[in-house]
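Appendix C reproduces, verbatim, an entry submitted by the partner laboratory led by Prof. M.T., so that reviewers can inspect both the input and the predicted structure.
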Amino acid sequence: MGNDNAPVTLTGGAPAIDEVVAVARRDAPVEVSPAAREAMARSAALVDGFVTSGRAVYGVTTGFGSLANRFIPAERTAELQVALVRSHAAGMGDPVEREVVRAMLLLRARSLTMAHSGVHPEVVDLQVALLNAGITPVVREHGSLGASGDLAPLAHCALPLVGEGTVFAADGTAQPASTALAAAGLTPLTLRAKEGLALINGTDGILGMLCLALHDLGQLARLADVTAAMTVEGLLGTDRAFAADLQALRPQVGQAASARNLQRLLAGSAIVASHREDDTRVQDAYSLRCTPQVHGAALDTFAFARSLAERELAAAIDNPMILPDGRVESCGNFHGAPVAFACDFLRIAISELCAIAERRTDRMLDVARSHGLPPFLSPDAGVNSGMMIAHYTQAAMAMEAQRLALPAATQSLPTSAMQEDHVSNGWAAARALRRSVVTLRRVLAVELVCAAAAIDLRGLPPAAGTGAAVTVLRERVAGPGPDRWLSPDLRAAEQLLADGSVLTAVEAAIGELEVLR
């Protein structure tokens, strides 16, 4: 979105991933289109008819899960919905991050505006009002199995709509929901038939975390090519392996894109040119030469996950579904398997980006393999340890990424007296993905610091692209010299990657790098 403050309109269609990020992170305002409101009203009228007719409809005039055969009389259907929200708000652990909760609220409202859930427009109006007022429900870390949706987290999001539970106000203080709503001039809802169920029966937590991760990975994929190109220079590597005609022999889309990025990043490098002739080496190590193959495979994985997320953003997620012809049908759209698989697959790709970055970094520090660099990039090694322990830190994080790459979606336990006998575990997959994304950024930050030091030690001008990265880093982190406290340097590098400073400078110098969409 060009304007961070541009409103995001819920139309009953699919929002863009960038719109989800704008609302979750930048508090972009949200509004509901008149057409979506009219469609929701028509759907809600169908549900009202089910109640008055005494028809047995799951979750409307029956209990839930293994209690689906318990009929609920019309006069108790509203009580049923509030009881459902209260009982399902059973989360434990630390509060979930504000941006994740905001994404959940937005995405649940998005699904409801598709008018297959039978809720009145006032339900979505209050969800949107919470977002626009900066009121964030307190959602606990544990409780979702990713089938029947993210039940416990979404129930924590739903409680404030009836004036119960706890929220973080716009100033960040925890307050009773009733207090925060009153201060914002908002009135709690009286839930009607089906509405409590519709508020909790979605994959919105998993999908929200997937969208946020994909946004970050679009930047980190390019930054991985930046730090890799810097290491190629630092290790006196060659760019010949990245040539377009060689890459065309294996027509993988991501591989070709990464190779083009590396070529552009290294174009005009005096360091690369300095050993182009009369170099006794015939090829670089895999961690340099195979960078586009590994980075490109990750790009392909990111593109797959993005396409799946975009389809999920267009999906109506609930059970049962209310159809325009008046039918009400049970289905399994709440099962999180598709998004769970994507989160697992992304963590595998991230782990490999971390692994190859760590191997590149290790080569720069090893005097036997660094082609003339001082041990551990220290000009006075012995008294000084240089970047030795920075690499330890990076290796520890790379192994953390490997542990996080273990699949979560292969785990399942039956619940609800065996009625809900297979779950996706997608919430766990998405929570691990968030940690994995942060780990990748930190691994790349260590490579950035070490590769910049190696470039400085070569004493020749780097390429325009890599040189721009070094220049930005040197504004916060000094070059090679006597040992100093390294943790602040590494954290500063991480911040420069996180806030876009490095990528902005590089792309200002050589143009936008490629990433698959």
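Residues 426-458 form the longest helix (33 residues). Additional entries are available on request from the coordinating office.
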